[in-house]
Amino acid sequence: MKELRHVTFLVMKERKDVLLSIILGFSAGISAVGLFASSGYLISKGALVPPIYTLTVMIALLKLFGFARAFSRYGERYFSHRATFTILSNLRVSFYKKIEPLAPRIFQKYRSGDLLARIVGDVESLQNFFLRVFYPPVVLVIVFLSTILFISYFSVILAFVMLLGLLLTGFVVPAIFALDQRKLQRNVREGRARLSTEVTELFYGFRDLKIYQQLEEKEKLLTEVAGDYVVEQETEGKQEIFNHSVNTFVTLLVSWLILALGAYLTVQGQFEGLFLAMLVMISLTVFENAAPMAVFPNHYEDSRRAAGRLEEVVENEVVEYVSEATNVLPDNEALSFHMKDVSFTFPGESSSTLANVNVSFESGTKTAIVGPSGSGKSTLLYLLLKLHQPDNGTFTLNNWNYSSVSSEDLWSKSNVVLQENHYFYGTIRENLAIAKEDIKDEEMLEALGMVKLNHFSLEDRVLEKGENLSGGEKQRLAIARAFLKGQHVWLLDEPTSSVDAVTENAIFEKLFEKAKDDTLVLVSHRLTGLERMDQIIVMENGNVVEAGTFDELMKAKGYFYEMKEIEKSVFM
């Protein structure tokens, strides 16, 4: 039940609609009981040829109960569904607020298809929590207890039988089937996650699968996964029908028992036979309210597992990354970063990506981080961006502990270009406008000119993920965004790796001009043009092996010198 605590909290925020749903549900249930009780009594009484006014009164009661039942049932459906839609809306917003600070770290733990299945499928599954799990048992118990109290006036023995029927159909039978339901629900949910993941990967990797002629194999795998999911759904559906059938059988058995026992008591003179038809009709009707309990285990287990999968994504991460943020970074100021004995290991990996790193990026300085592929350069930059959390060590920003600064505050005051940047379906203008608010067209055109994209107009289309742009155009568009943002911290990860040397040199001239007094950190695999850097940090296997200016490293004739000599021999 602990998985459903947060959902229950959101349910109770709609206490007005919850209370109205329960009241109207009780009214509908008890009106149905009154309607059929009156019908049964009218049948028995009519056989004795009573006065016409007696029949008139009974018929009027039937109409009253019928109207009350219809009105109450409509009101119950209206308020319960309104509450459900509001609860789902609040749940989506609540989950988004928790998961949003975790992006993109969260993709280190979960595949995108699995996340999609959780965000869409699991949230949708929770619509049944209020409608099928939360308030129906409350209505069932109130209606049954009221009915049993009424029956006890005529016969305590029959009231006891009715109570036994309540316990069997409302609690015992659903509890028995709940044990089998857990495994079925887990299989269905995991099957849906696998299917969502495989579909996502097929779409993302379609071009590569086609090129390497592996599309048919991937389609076969997808068909198998889809088939397994359908089988699990069919098994769950059969189990649900069986549960409902057993519950219905028990209710009919109880009604037959009441009829037989009532007839026996009538013969023995312990019960007024005039009311026998009324009690049988009541037993047939009141168990209609127990029908939802037949599928209660399905919906309860479905809701519990859905809530658990959602909480699994965010329950530990939010506290770790968000709760300690207390300081606000100054505006229009170049920041300084300091790391001492910082280490980092990706989740699930045994070897460290960074080990005991000691580096400083002073305010207003220009730093290049170089080294072979896989040396930890980008990971170090991601730590600066708070996209990863260090395992240990001391990490400060402007002499504040790094955990005391929120990620969003840091991002809002940084110009960032990563190796992979997202491009939205729309226009060049719309993709540049995300840099900051109220950007004028003239500023956008000027930024495009700085990165040598003058051939683009602001109305040119950009396809999803920039599919109609070349690698170099994507990088230059990302740099144009950074130019437009105009903050005083620059964090750049291979920003021109797909750009030709002439264009790259022109872009860097503009970059150093704009970042003259700013803090700049550049991750690069190229060693040309680093002479203007204040310091160069050389990394290998997650360790800082050298640090200094260009001239100092060349004079030392160490690792950087060897890399430089190799580059000269290859490109000259």
Care to describe what's here?
With about 575 residues, the protein is α/β, with parallel strands linked by helices. It has 2 domains: about 1-315, ABC transporter transmembrane region fold; about 335-415 and about 485-570, Rossmann fold (3-Layer(aba) Sandwich), CATH 3.40.50.300. About 60% of the residues lie in helices and about 10% in strands. It is built from 21 helices and 12 strands. The protein has helices spanning about 5-10, 15-45, 50-100, 110-125, 125-135, 135-150, 155-205, 205-210, 215-265, 275-285, 290-295, 295-315, 315-320, 375-385, 405-410, 430, 440-450, 470-485, 500-515, 550-555, 560-570; strands at about 335-345, 355-360, 365-370, 390-395, 400, 415, 425, 460, 490-495, 520-525, 535-540, 545-550. Strands 6-9-10-3-11-12 form a 6-stranded mixed beta sheet, sandwiched between helices. A 4-stranded antiparallel beta sheet has the order 2-1-4-5, with helices on one face. α2 (about 15-45) packs antiparallel against α3 and α4 (about 110-125) packs across α12 (about 295-315). The longest helix has about 55 residues, at about 215-265. It is elongated and about 115 Å long. The two termini are about 70 Å apart. Residues about 320-325 have low confidence and may be disordered.
